[in-house]
Structures are given as structure tokens and as C-alpha cells.
Amino acid sequence: MKKQFAAAVDVGGTNTKFGWVDNSGQLYGSGSVKTGEFSRAEDLITRVHKELQNLINFDQSGICGIGVGAPNANYHTGCIHYAPNLDFAKSIVPFASIFTEVSGLKCKITNDANAAAIGEKIYGKAQGMNDFMVVTLGTGLGSGIYTGGQVLYGSDGMAGEMGHTCLIPGGRKCGCGRLGCIERYVSIGGLTTTFLETTEGQKGELRPRQIQALAEEGDKHAIQTYKITGEYLGLHLSSMAALFSPEAIFLSGGLAQSGEVLLSPMRRAFEDNLLSHHKGKIKIELSGLEKQKTALLGAAALAFSSFSV
Amino acid sequence: MKKQFAAAVDVGGTNTKFGWVDNSGQLYGSGSVKTGEFSRAEDLITRVHKELQNLINFDQSGICGIGVGAPNANYHTGCIHYAPNLDFAKSIVPFASIFTEVSGLKCKITNDANAAAIGEKIYGKAQGMNDFMVVTLGTGLGSGIYTGGQVLYGSDGMAGEMGHTCLIPGGRKCGCGRLGCIERYVSIGGLTTTFLETTEGQKGELRPRQIQALAEEGDKHAIQTYKITGEYLGLHLSSMAALFSPEAIFLSGGLAQSGEVLLSPMRRAFEDNLLSHHKGKIKIELSGLEKQKTALLGAAALAFSSFSV
Q1: pTM value > 0.90
Q2: Complex prediction ipTM
Q3: B55: contact with A, CB 8 A cutoff
Q4: How are beta strands B92-93 and B79-81 bridged, if at all?
Q5: Over the stretch B118-149, which tens digit does the pLDDT of each residue have?
Q6: Which of the listed CATH numbers 3.10.129.10, 3.40.50.1370, 3.30.420.40, 3.30.1340.10 matches domain A129-287?
């Protein structure tokens, strides 16, 4: 296999990370800038491109393009659409086109969860799989879904938003304006809300790490909070299994690292609620990508899967 | 376009219907037998094949194969898996293989809702669409889903079961053994249950047609029953829209013919619950296929899409 390189960029609400990755998944230098320092996409891109140039310590002839993971990114149009956490994307920003203009390189963009799924397929545990999901559990709940060997983009490039499917009709108010989205229950914010409800506010508003520490000490409210969260996730993933018949579901993101206090009730609820022909057949596992590298490997995998020769 | 013919078979719990269809969607003779009279798939197939032979009144050289729609049918394996309403399929029955053996013709099988979706794409309103859903509202709730121009079959050929995704955690007991499946709320049985709940049983257990007649007379309980049912459907379809970003959703089956008493609250709940970038962009319409012919056209379309030269 001829060695090729892709620039990988992960645009987040706080930091924009970047680096060079080769087609075996090796990372060649990386860095980050504060996203909030840039009010225009052009300025962020120009700075990231300059930093990327400084990191090149390999044969430039092998560069195949740029892959970007970003919230609310549209694979079909190359634009970021109204991302609430990105100052520079309060309207529709043609991020991929600008990056190509600045760098002279081809650029593809997709949302961060899709990038994580592409990374899982190219470098992780989903190699050889055609039907699987990656669910990212962090500030929000994202999902990247493969069906029949292809990323599910839908008619407009924005499909695969499991985080905004309804778990509880009339339930908690979501940032998207609707009620009861699973993201409001199974995410870092969801966990803290459930803890507040479980304790009736008597222990204050704790951060997930504090709730996890309490659970490890045997605190019954903390354990109950993880149990409720895990059961919601397991139940909802069983509905996803009825829709997608995946070979496996991979979890990534900070909340996925909570351990058995979350995963054990999740697996039980999942198995209990699978259709009979699926029982015992669909694996749920943690992502095979190193946590710190998932986003960049995913973005690079997007570039390789789009531009590799 | 060279004229070709497919045998179309629709296996239902009560009747098995069959006929010949050409590639323009014209039906050349049809018939039906009582499914319950046959305790073995071989006997049903032999009988249907004989009846189909008797119906041939065209040039046999144009026959390309057989398409079958059936509950719990697996496209990948050609088998019907444990269909509760089919006496001959209490285990795994290799329906397509048996049909090929008996007839000498190639045979493909899929579940009835997938067949309806293929029919919609080839003969109905989904021509030219790559991302859409067909939802069949009858005794149960079935769905056939196209993503990226392909039917969603998943890793095991059994994907696309929207009917068994959870609407209300811990809700009504479903025939599949789980709680809260949307099929228990949005289907003929679901409507009658909701009417019982709405009237607190004071008007007895009425059939959908009686409930519809009451609604047309302005009965507030009957109207409320359709409103609840429509709102459940609209809410759940908005979650499907977040997942699949379809161009359109088509409704078929008896309950879909209820008119505005169902469709108007459904559309309102759907629009209210769409993600902002989808609002006003995803059509929900009745199927473009004639109600009586949907199943046979779908089965024929499966054959043409699999075998047509």
C-alpha cells in the first residue's frame, strides 16, 4: 500500500484540533487552536492551514486531501449549517470550499459522529462490517450509521441524528426546541439532570466525574442515576436495532468510559428489548479507536475514503 | 422497453393473493387462496403455482421471475422466519427456494412493507427518489425504507421494523413481547385500544370503521381517538426524519385511508417536531399505488428489480 497522508481537522465548540494522519492510521504531529478566537471561518481556516504546513515532516507528494469533522456539517454541500456552539457558523458556511481555496487541497466535511463511524470502519473494530452504528456520548449524543456499506446521509446530507429522536414523548426540553429527545437523557447533561431528579436536588448539581466517584463509593443515588441512564440507552438502542439490524454498535465519548455502572444496565435493557431474532446477535462494544485520537482518525478516514487513489 | 412479466405473490395471514404483472405495472389476471388451508409451504406453493399457470395469457418467454411479499420474510436468505400468523411458517421456511424448485423460476422474497416501498419506487410516487419511507398502517405497522437508493435490509435482511421501535417506554404490551412499540398505538388494534381508553370503555369495543363513522358524526371521543393516534404517528415520523432525512414519507394500508381526522393532527405533530433544517421540506403523502394492487405491484417490482434484464 502506497503511503498517503491526509490533513485531519476536528472543529469543536472549544478547540479545533488538527494533524496529519497516514493511511495506516499513524498520526504525524498535531495541534489545536481555540475555536472561539475566530469569528469568521476564513480566519480559522487560514490559521489551521498555516499550523498544518508547519507540521509537515514527510513527502508532500503523498497528500491526498483534507477531512473535517464538525457539528452540523453537511457532507453533500460541504457547509456547516447554523451550529449553535460555533461563533463563525451562525448561518450556512461553505467550510469545505473555503478550505480548498485557502490550501489548494480537496476537502470533505461531515459531522463528528459520522467521522467517528468512518474512522471505526477504516481503523477500528468495524473493519469488514457493512452495517453498524457508532454512538458518541459526550456533551450531546451523536450517531454515525453505516447501512449496506455506506454512511447514512439521507436526501440532504444531514441524516443519522439519533440524538434527536424522541425517547419520552413530552419529556425534557431539548436544545433543538423539541421535547423528550434522547440526548437530554443520555449525555453528560442528561446524567446530571437525572442525578438532580434522583436526589431531588439534595446533593446539588454535580459533574459526571463527581457522580461517578459517588457511584464507585456505593452511593445509591449515583448508582441509580447510571442505571436509569444505561436503561434508557439500552432501550433506545434496541429500537435502533429493529430499524437497522446492525452487526454491532460501538460507543465512544466521555460518558461511554463510565464502566459497568452504566454498561451493565444498558446491556440488560438492550437484550431484554431486542426483537427475538436479534437476541444474542448484536454486539455493543466500546470504540476500537484510542479516545484522544478518534476525532482526528475519523476526519482522516473521511479524506482517505473520498480521495484516496 | 421490452415487455416482461413477473409472477407476484402476497402471502397474508388470511389470503394469499397472486397474479402476473408486466414491467409497466399492468396486472394480467389475479386470484387468491385461503392461506390457512395449507399447513406446509410446499402445498401452498404448489397450489399457487398451478393457479398462476392457469392465468398465463401472454408470451411466456417474457417471464423474468417471481416476487413474494410475506410477513417476517428475509430478503438475504429467502426464508420466512417464525411468522406468528402463518401456520406453515412456525419455524424457518426456505420459501423462495421451494418456489424455485416447484416452478423452475427465479424467486425473491421480502417482507410486505419492503415490497410496498419497492412498488412505490418503481410504479408510484417515489420514482426518482433515493431516500424515502413507506409506512403501512393496517393490522400492524410496517415500514419499508430506502436509503441512498437501496432498500434498508441491514446485516441480516430483517431491518426496517419501525413498527417495533418504542414510542412509549413501559407502554402497551406488544405481540413481539416488548412494551410500548408504536405498532400498539398506530394500527387498527391501536386505534381501538385508544378508543376504549378515551371512552373509558363506555361505548364498548368498536371496529375502526365504526369509530370513523362516529368521528364523521362529530363524536368527540372518536375525534379525540384519531387525534391521539395521528399525533403519535406524526411525532414518531419526526424521529424517523431525524434518522433518515427522507425526501418523502408515503402512507398505505387501511388506516391511512381515514382521511383528515387522522392526517391533519399527524401533519401538525410532524411539522412541530421536525428538526429546524427539515421543517417544511419533508412531504407526507398517501401512497401513489392503488390500494387493492399495492401488495402485488410491490411483489412484482421486487422481481423486476432483482431479475429484469
Answers
A1: yes
A2: 0.93
A3: no
A4: antiparallel
A5: 999 999 999 999 999 999 999 889 999 999 99
A6: 3.30.420.40
